[in-house]
Design a protein that fits this description.
MAG_DAG_Lipase, 12 helices, transmembrane, single chain, Rossmann fold, two-stranded antiparallel ribbon, alpha/beta, AB_hydrolase_fold, globular, hydrolase, 2 domains, membrane, ten-stranded mixed beta sheet
């Protein structure tokens, strides 16, 4: 249909629209060029990449993981560590042969000098016939070390434990430049297959996930609803689960754009720092942030879709432990994107509050001292909510305030524990570690076991003397309420 010639006002409006679009494109281009320039400047200021950043071990891909067995995975894993020794440890530059480098065979933090290298997958068997099985999934940049205390507890209760090293982890940070969340999901399926092979149904099957592992545990549980080939878990226990992360991770890929040029290979890294922790990477590649964002995006979409379809009714009960102040993952996403959508299936959410008895209010950044107004009892929920908090604003004595599912009434009970005066909150990384953990504990049982006790450091002195920034060393790495966490877990673990 012929609409006729545009009128003069129409032509004027179109010209203005095109001009505005060109201006916006120019502004966006200037912004992008400026951002890339600042990124390149920042890259050049940091230390150079080392062998453990540039070497990428060849892991099994998702198809091989789905086809393979536990023994296949262990065989490949053993080969990976041999290759890391050949390509990294034996190729170190003289300046990298230091006591604080986990990749130097003469260092006190060299993992292979310990009685057990907790970077590797492992299985624990009880003394008698197992009463059930549990799969443990560690977090991003982490290793199976992070859940070893919970593994021992399950084993003592008669469970067979399968703790897998997720692809890209435990070897060198460069491994995370190539890993994908689909690889981690395939490794999760492999670990569950092995757990069910060792302990067939109907004996209970649990999955415990920490941080990124929590997202993988939940993703697997939803996949098992539709796929009869996947063993259905009877219970999920999530610790600081990565249900949502900051929006920065959404655009992390842009930060790595300059890495397409060899001269700017460091752009593939958000941080390049010394590797002094024997069981966790300190350096962090852009790809790791991107994969975490993609995993949480797909996970949240999956939760919302299944809520509309009604299939969340078939999820197992979920018990979650989480710190209200969590710098790594989103507390609001945990509540709004997951728990607010759950059916009434016996799920629990336990939140550890910040220490209300400290007098640090003026020193907190704006928005940090979150009031919990959105999570305190006052409306009916499909899950039981527990807030572990101070009995009053001037007391270090701790109480649990519980709102049962379907009720608005609040029950308060003392837990017989106190918030340590020197701690203002828990942290994302602290929850699965007791205070006597040799590496991360505030009061380690064996301060010499792993060459360094990161959690016991309470240090003051001049700046610029240490191999790591003070933020890393000041972060709380163990949980003063770990006995409470274990007690709550015991309430859902069948004997």
């Amino acid at each position: 249909m012929y609409l006729g010639r545009p009128t003069r006002p129409q032509r004027t409006a179109w010209r203005r629209t095109r001009k505005a679009a060109r201006i916006l494109c120019l502004i966006a281009a200037v912004f992008l060029v400026t951002a890339i320039g600042l990124r390149l400047f920042d890259i050049q200021q940091g230390p150079p990449l080392a062998a453990w950043h540039t070497y990428v071990p060849e892991e099994l891909d998702r198809d091989a993981l789905d086809r393979g067995s536990w023994q296949d995975y262990l065989a490949r894993e053993k080969k990976l560590f041999v290759e890391v020794r050949q390509h990294v440890t034996e190729q170190l530059e003289p300046e990298d042969r230091s006591e604080s480098n986990r990749y130097f065979s003469g260092a006190v933090v060299y993992p292979e000098r310990f009685t057990q290298d907790w970077n590797r997958s492992y299985v624990l068997e009880p003394d008698a016939d197992p009463v059930g099985a549990v799969v443990l999934l560690h977090g991003l940049t982490d290793s199976p070390y992070s859940l070893r205390h919970i593994a021992a507890h399950y084993r003592d209760l008669g469970y067979a434990v399968v703790a897998i090293r997720l692809p890209g982890h435990g070897t060198v940070p460069g491994g995370l430049t190539d890993a994908t969340w689909e690889d981690w999901a395939a490794a999760t399926r492999l670990a569950v297959r092995e757990a069910r092979r060792r302990v067939p149904a109907p004996r209970p099957l649990h999955i415990v996930g920490f941080s990124n592992g929590g997202a993988l545990a939940l993703m697997y549980a939803m996949e098992s609803i539709d796929d009869p080939r996947l063993a259905r878990p009877d219970r999920l226990i999530l610790i600081s689960p990565m249900i949502g992360i900051t929006q920065f991770a959404r655009f992390a890929g842009l930060a790595g754009l300059p890495a397409i040029l060899p001269a700017f290979a460091k752009a593939a890294w958000l941080s390049v720092v010394p590797e002094f922790n024997p069981f966790k990477y300190n350096s962090f590649p852009v790809n790791a942030a991107r994969q975490s964002y993609e995993l949480t995006r797909v996970l949240q979409e999956n939760i919302a879709l299944r809520q509309r379809q009604g299939s969340l009714e078939r999820l197992p009960p979920i018990l979650t432990f989480h710190s209200v102040l969590d710098f790594t993952v989103s507390t609001r996403a945990l509540i709004n994107a997951l728990y607010a959508r759950l059916p009434a299936n016996g799920s629990d959410l336990v939140l550890f509050d910040l220490n209300r008895a400290t007098k640090l209010g003026p020193l907190f950044r704006r928005g940090v001292e979150w009031s919990l107004s959105g999570t305190l009892p006052g409306e009916q929920r499909n899950y039981r909510l527990t807030i572990v908090t101070n009995a009053s604003s001037v007391s270090s004595d701790m109480v649990e305030r519980i709102s049962e599912a379907g009720e608005t009434r609040l029950v308060e009970r003392a837990i017989g524990m106190q918030y340590p005066r020197e701690i203002y909150s828990l942290s994302h990384v602290a929850l699965p570690f007791p205070v006597n953990d040799s590496l991360y504990g505030q009061h380690p049982d064996n301060i010499e076991e792993y060459g360094v006790s990161l959690g016991a450091m309470s240090i003051r002195g001049e700046v610029g003397a240490l191999v790591s920034g003070m933020d890393t060393l000041a972060r709380l790495t163990s949980n003063p309420f770990y006995p409470y966490l274990i007690k709550r877990m015991d309430g859902v673990i069948p004997r």
